[in-house]
Design goal:
Length: 224
């Protein structure tokens, strides 16, 4: 039996899951999460074929994160698949705090980042060294001074080089980037490869102000 280093809490919460199924087709559906912890959950009511190792997105309320499927069981019939999922590094559980679970950052040194990542909608433009390819106007959903994550059903291949444009206050910033992770049906992780330290620090401070502003707005809304 697996040893679980974190507590599991019985629950039955509605979630939205999406990604690319085992047959290479994008899917979106409602499901339920149970046996939750700060590291993962057991999903039930899955209607699409999935396999261990797949990366999927899971949303509960307004919060979402990326998870890896650890195991999958087909118990027969429509929507009868069950799966165990684990939170990917540097992600925050969509149901954190529901069972008074104290969230913590991954301790493995390989997952530590020089700059914290913020879960804010941050507009960016992605273009390519080949000027004949189109531009992508999109939003990063997880961003810090060294890189970002962009949700897309059809991510670029790992190793693809791109140009990235965004703004800090009113100043336009240009950098090159490289796709470091590619999760079909979910999104891709980009590393900023030519952003100097000073601009990285300015971006980090700008993101912190954005995050603080959103937190204050949410607190004011809840208190009204």
């Amino acid at each position: 039996m697996d040893k679980r280093p974190e507590p599991r809490v019985s629950a039955d919460i509605p979630v939205r899951i999406w990604g690319m199924d085992a047959e290479g087709r994008p899917f979106f559906q409602n499901a339920h999460a149970g046996s939750i912890s700060d590291e993962g959950a057991a999903l039930t009511g899955i209607a699409h074929p999935l396999k261990a190792g797949d990366v999927i997105g899971i949303q509960h309320g307004e919060h979402k994160a990326r998870f890896r499927i650890v195991w999958i069981v087909d118990t027969g019939g429509a929507r009868k698949r069950e799966a165990g999922v684990e939170l990917l590094p540097a992600q925050h559980s969509p149901w954190r705090g529901m069972a008074k679970i104290e969230m913590s950052q991954p301790q493995d040194s390989k997952n530590r980042r020089r700059y914290a990542r913020y879960k804010v909608l941050f507009p960016i433009e992605i273009s390519f060294p080949d000027a004949n390819r189109g531009r992508m106007q999109t939003h990063a959903t997880d961003i810090g001074g060294r890189g970002c994550y962009v949700e897309t059903l059809v991510p670029l291949a790992v190793g693809t080089n791109v140009n990235i444009n965004f703004a800090i206050d009113a100043e336009k910033i240009r950098t090159t980037g490289t796709v470091r992770t590619s999760d079909p049906g979910v999104g891709m992780g980009l590393e900023f490869t030519t952003l100097d330290d000073q601009v990285q620090q300015r971006l980090q401070q700008f993101l912190e102000r954005m995050d603080t502003g959103f937190a204050q707005r949410d607190a004011a809304t809840q208190g009204s």
